Amino acid sequence: MPSRSSSSSCWPRPVALERPAIVGHSMGGLVSRSALHAATQAGMAWPKRLDDLVFLGTPHHGAPLERAGHWIDLVLGATPYAAPFARLGRVRSAGITDLRHGLLLDEDWVGRDRFARGGDRRQPVPLPAGVRCGALAASLGAQGGTLKEKLLGDGLVPLASALGQHADPARALAFAPDRQWVGYGMNHLDLLDRTEVYAQLKEWLS
């Protein structure tokens, strides 16, 4: 077995950090926004060092499939014979139920029943100041597709949610036009390994 010294030349040498960036896929984007907000509120230094924050298929305004699951829970729970099935639905993790509206802050959920009926009560959280933010979304349909295709988005997250678009200006996320990208004919997981996505990331981060 080779010694540590004989094999050390094969190990990658540490290099100085040039510019930090975060790339978050799906819920990872929500976690990144939440962490940045909390760190900024606490006066931490690392948010000021962050250069880029890029989201891949992040449900900034929620995912309809979780909301549909929530509605099914309510319907089943209202029927005594189906109530046991509703209890099975409640096994969903807190993280998954956060996808209903894209919750970021403790205040959005602490002390509330995450399975209770209710609308979007989130506190608006804008994109972090001083950080270049980009949103990559996917669509199962073709470019210029139907409204149904846009609502379906990548099969989990609608295009509008992934791009931070919202009818309420206070909730809309101000991504620069040249920092929004849509990959057509892709699903939610395709954002992780398609060459077109890598090329766009490379362009933004290089």
What's this, in brief?
The protein is 34% helix and 11% strand. The protein is built from nine helices and four strands. The longest helix is centred in the first third of the chain and has 15 residues, at 27-41.
What does it look like?
This protein has a four-stranded parallel β-sheet, sandwiched between helices. The chain has nine helices and four strands, in the order H-E-H-H-E-H-H-H-E-H-H-E-H. The longest helix has 15 residues, at 27-41. Residues 1-7 and 66-98 have low confidence and may be disordered. By secondary structure, the chain is α/β, with parallel strands linked by helices. It folds into two domains: 22-63 and 131-205, Alpha/Beta hydrolase fold, catalytic domain (Rossmann fold, 3-Layer(aba) Sandwich); 64-108, no CATH class. It has helices spanning 4-7, 27-41, 46-49, 64-77, 83-89, 94-98, 147-152, 159-162, 195-205, and strands at 21-25, 52-56, 132-139, 180-184.
Largest sheet: 4 strands, parallel
What series of H and E elements makes up the topology? HEHHEHHHEHHEH
Strand content: 5-15%
Overall 3D shape:
globular
Helix segment count? 9
How would you name the CATH homologous superfamily of the largest domain?
Alpha/Beta hydrolase fold, catalytic domain
Low-confidence stretches: 1-7, 66-98
Report the radius of gyration as a whole number of Å: 20 Å
The percentage helix is 25-40%
Structural class: alpha/beta
Strand adjacency order, main sheet = 1-2-3-4
Spell out the blueprint of helices and strands.
Layout: H1 4-7, E1 21-25, H2 27-41, H3 46-49, E2 52-56, H4 64-77, H5 83-89, H6 94-98, E3 132-139, H7 147-152, H8 159-162, E4 180-184, H9 195-205
Parallel strand pairs: 1-2, 2-3, 3-4
Helix pairs in contact: 4-5
